Amino acid sequence: MTNLSTITDYNYGLQKIFSEADDFLPLLGTDYVELYVGNAKQAAHYYKTAFGFQSLAYAGLETGLRDRTSYVLQQGKIRLVLTTPLRSDNPIAEHIKKHGDAVKVIALWVDDARDAFRETVSRGAKPYFEPVVEKDAFGEVVRAGIHTYGDTVHVFVERKNYQGIFLPGFEKWESEYSPSDTGLQYIDHMVGNVGWGEMNTWARFYNEVMGFANLISFDDKDISTEYSALMSKVMTNGNGRIKFPINEPAEGKKKSQIEEFIDFFEGPGCQHIAVATNDIVHTITEMRKRGVEFLHVPGAYYDTVPERVGEIAEDLRRLKELGIMVDRDEEGYLLQIFTRPVEDRPTMFFEIIQRKGAKSFGKGNFKALFESIEAEQARRGTL
Questions:
Q1: C-alpha torsion sign, points 221, 225, 230, 233
Q2: What beta strand segments (E) does 173-240 contain?
Q3: Residue 317 contacts by C-beta under 8 Å, 6 or more apart in sequence?
Q4: What is the CB neighbour count within 10 angstroms for residue 86?
Q5: Is 291 left (phi over 0), alpha (psi -120 to 50) or beta?
Q6: pLDDT of residue 377
Q7: DSSP H/E element including 208
Q8: How many other CB atoms are found less than 10 A from the CB of residue 176?
Q9: What is the CA radius of gyration of the chain?
């Protein structure tokens, strides 16, 4: 049984971490995540069918947009924007040529986009674009952007004076094809992979430029197997709504998943999006029915769950059938599972997570998870 003083110390530690995050950049949440993709129409069909996202908004030739097409999908508080270029000389096409289908924009919801831009640039951020006001009959949105690791950018979105479906220039996307959702609620965290020796540089960026604090750090002793290792620092904003783990490779006998990602992504980028659910058994049951493929967890992993995690509400046999992993910290426990890459390059994937009080990231699952990833790498010939 967990000692009460341990829980008190842990809670105090979390409060101290959050208090260390500066308030000069108050973030209200993740506004949207934009992926540059080769075929937005087909990608939208996949995310609707497999993940249960719902049609929300559209912009393209029919709305007066001449260089790109964007489909916006929503489930719970999650908004995905899938954007494809209409000509080969478009910078979006260059991004896709280099990285494949990938996250380009992690948009952050703010109360004042101009102030967010001014504060971050004054602290050293490289501007992506200066504040712009976009208007239509439903009001106005102010947006501004800064660069972060690789070709990834953050866009600050101020929408307090807007009542439209998504952004000016978008219209409601009416679709007769509307599969049911799978119970996804919100983005829990998003992980960035960076190169050798770059983790501390980007952790410092989030600390000094964006006012984040280091929630937790993992070294190569925490995240390693017989063959490979990595290091990670989890950065969080002041209210804990935005969490960005930053991973870098560590020395090992063979090539780590971070090295594989950087090789095929051709640089740093967003490795995975962790999305939360309130019923992971239902969510994964539905997603498996719809063809989503998940990493295989060795059956022996579940032999130690009762002694390592203790009592849980879920049926362990059902978790084993679905491949859902379990871990506990001082606050409670969590359940998590990872998809295989959702495209042909072994780059971006999704994590599905349900938190039953736990604030951590599944440290007790790292070894089993990374052995599963290495098995996939071995099949691909990239380990």
A1: negative
A2: 184-193, 213-218, 229-236
A3: none
A4: 14
A5: left
A6: 75
A7: helix 199-208
A8: 5
A9: 21
pLDDT per residue over 300-345, tens digit each?
A: 888 888 988 999 999 999 999 999 999 988 999 999 999 999 999 9
The residue among 18, 15, 23 whose CA lies nearest residue 111 is 23
Record the tokens describing residue 121, joined without a space: 């640039």
Question: Hey, what are 195's tokens?
Answer: 């190169």
What is the residue type of 344? D
Residues 18-62: tens digit of each pLDDT: 555 667 899 999 999 999 999 999 999 999 999 999 999 999 999
Region label for 381, one of left (φ > 0), alpha (ψ between -120 and 50) or beta (otherwise): left
Give the C-alpha distances (Å, rounded to integers) separating 90 from 39, 87, 210, 280.
14, 6, 30, 40
How many C-beta neighbours within 10 Å does residue 237 have? 25
Looking only at the bridges linking them, the beta strands covering 102-110 and 153-158 are parallel
What is the length of the chain? 383
Q: What confidence score (pLDDT) does residue 376 get?
A: 74
Locate tokens 């494949």: which residue?
100
Helices 366-380 and 257-265, interaxial angle, to 10°? 50
Residue 316 has a CB neighbour count (10 Å cut-off) of 14
Name the nearest CA neighbour of 283 among 189, 363, 180. 180
Could you give the CA distance from residue 70 to residue 59 in angstroms, rounded to a whole number? Answer: 5
> How far is Cα 269 from Cα 242, in angstroms, rounded to an integer?
17
> CA 20, CA 14: separation in Å to the nearest integer?
10
What pTM, to 2 d.p., does this model score?
0.91
Is-contact 323 338, C-beta < 8 A? no
Identify the bridge partners of residue 349 per DSSP, sorted by sequence position.
272
Rounded Cα gap, residues 53 and 45, in angstroms: 9
Q: Which residue has the tokens 């929408």?
A: 159
